[in-house]
Amino acid sequence: MTARTPEDLIAQGYRVNVLTYVGQGWQSFINKPLGYLSFVWGCLLATLAAEFFLVFAAQSTHNAFLSGLSQWAVYLLHPGAVLLIIAGTATATWFEIQGVSLPFWGVFTSPIIVRRLVLCGVVAALLLQIYGVAIVWIVRLVGNLFNLNTATLDVAAPIIGALVAFLYPGVNWTLAPFLILDRNLTAWAAILVSWNVIAEGWWGMLALSLIFLLPVMLLWTVIFLLPIYPPVQGLLLLLSLGPFIALLGSSFSIAYADIFGLESKTLISARHAPRNGS
Length: 278
What we know:
This protein has helices at residues 6-12, 18-31, 33-61, 64-97, 111-145, 150-172, 176-183, 187-198, 202-225, 230-259. With 278 residues, it is mainly alpha-helical.
């Protein structure tokens, strides 16, 4: 896995081997299913606990400003937490295929990397929100120019805005957390590099994204339609996220390793991890 610069990837191009990445990601997952699932579920539970604490603390003060602030904090907590979870699965996957044993929690040993990953998730979420709002405004403007029905625009505009925001900037930023881990980039630099490089292989990365997005959307729809209590639905949703995020993290980390090549083993304390057989 020879490391390649973003300039080389943009100039020379690259192939996105979707099925290979998913297959290797699945193999990594089934090699350590308990490790992947316990890590992902543990992080998700910790995120939910932090969310409940923020909401409870804000509501107990009966302060409208703090209540609104807590809602924004919860909204931004999710993408930051997801990137940390994906980073944990990525480091474990990378070092496993290189013959190095590293705990999933090793990602938390570098405070700088953790801050950059959280910031990357927050910035990406805010930018996606801005993109979505801008697209909704454009759809409404065009619809009004053509005198389309207002009720139709009220339904169509948010759907189109969400789809376009996911399909372009959302896909273009998928390799940003791995650039932070491997190349030690800042959050903003990683977002820009990921955007520029994925633009050259966008269709392949879109296919890789949809392989994970479509099944989980179908599964969540089925769970929501089940005639069960909301707390049970929430538990089922949480449990279903475990294997989904684990497979997503392992598959995309293998995609990154194939496209960019791994530059460094030392960012997440790999120098302290024993090699197999040593």
